[in-house]
Amino acid sequence: QVQLVESGGGSVQAGGSLRLSCAPSIYTHARSYMGWFRQAPGKEREGVAAIDRDGSTTYADSVKGRFTISQDNAKNTLYLQMNSLKPEDTAMYYCAAGSATPIATLIAVDYNYWGQGTQVTVSS
Asked: For the chain, which has fewer Cβ within 10 Å, the N-terminal or C-terminal residue?
């Protein structure tokens, strides 16, 4: 059973930064990918960023230019650097791994493995 563990969440003021980590970064298939999702209270889980094993990335429009997904293969760790945080970024953030589609997606059903989440709270 694969276990993904997120860390790095916390409380920051608007305009601040946080870096989330997820270990291990797993690629169980040649077409595997990993992603970050978030879910705010009363809202559906939404894809934030995704990366495939070759390093190609995709982002939600709401975080483009502010968030960066990356991976350190030597450390087997996935990251999400979040800059210029806004109150609307407040949510539980989850990392996930999947291989259902040829390319990384921001669709939750395309992912097979999930972490337990780390809370990010941004105050105005």
From this structure: N
Phi/psi for 10 (5° steps) reads 165, -165
DSSP 17: -
- The DSSP bridge partners found for residue 92 are 39, 119
The strand pairing partners of 70, in sequence order, are: 79
Q: What is the pLDDT of residues 51-104, one digit of tens each?
A: 998 899 999 999 999 999 999 888 889 999 999 999 999 999 999 998 888 889
Q: Are 117 and 7 in contact, with CB atoms under 8 Å apart?
A: no
Cβ contact 29:35 at 8 Å? no
Residue 84, token pair as written in the block: 């210029």
Q: Please state whether 82 falls in left (phi above 0), alpha (psi between -120 and 50) or beta.
A: beta
Residue in 76, 88, 8 with CA at minimum distance from that of residue 48: 88
5, 115 Cβ separation under 8 angstroms = yes
